[in-house]
């Protein structure tokens, strides 16, 4: 058994690692004395991955939008017993999600952990697609898509992505469209499954008071034995994306009591991964907190003038091929909020950022993340996200601590410009 242990003395945490014969990477963060246990079985496959070369093929294919999300739904389909019922018998709560870059299947429990883990591995590795159950699912997901199309919060966000991006698939709704899912069939689902659900493209992450030796026994017992480990890395194809935004302003009318808005700043500093990508993410989120957080003078000014409420805030989202800062909220005068934001950013460019604000927010966020390691859910969610960015979350605090004021200042000048933002607004009907 080739088991490795990584330790971080600063936060007094350790992580176990093991790679199975099939190429599956297995990680455990042990939390002695914790009642709750959590497992996530995830694949590096999301809604962005619509153009790729299937395993064993040489030619690129393009699959219907929304197929990764559709596949997630269908993996819960079994010819006999319901998967949810099986987990319930063990007292475990099971769920799944698909985002732009990954699909994850997860459960949490206090008892019967190893039995639940075996069930998780087996059902994810045993797809059951038929013409009948695929057609049935189209109606279910079409209703889900229509529900999101009527959601002001969902629409204002995706409209902003549509305004920022010309070609990148991140602008496409994760569930696809009612039209695109009609093109999905069982053969295409199996093609996507066989390519992206290969163990070498997947990660199993566990956290709780769990025996790693027992975990490895379950993995060796449960994973398929006929999978070849000598496959090459999956070739994913993304259309070339211009640095410029596509549209400056997008407006839509939906049922909402107050107009809502999203300002998106498109990132043209792309192509990074691993530590460099995560360092950029940290720096940008510190910046957003300094500029637009609850303790900022700008937030207080907007709030006191009645231009925003407590929903106002910002977040940076970045991956190797794309990235953007999102500043969002609700306001009766979103155009005035944008105008004041631009004036504020220009003023900050002229006078410079406040180093004391940087130090205070950096310390606050380091403390919050250290506290986060007391939460099973916090650990599980973050570890999976960062593992697919080729970074171990156990080193996150060390990387956070290395961020300097110069890193923040350089990022501010390069990212928040007058030529790289989109304003998306949803107003009442």
Automatic annotation (TrEMBL):
Molecular function, one GO term: metal ion binding
Location of the Peptidase M16 C-terminal domain: 183-364
Domain named Peptidase M16 N-terminal: residues: 65-177
PANTHER family: METALLOPROTEASE, ZINC-DEPENDENT PROTEASE
Name the record gives this protein: Insulinase family protein
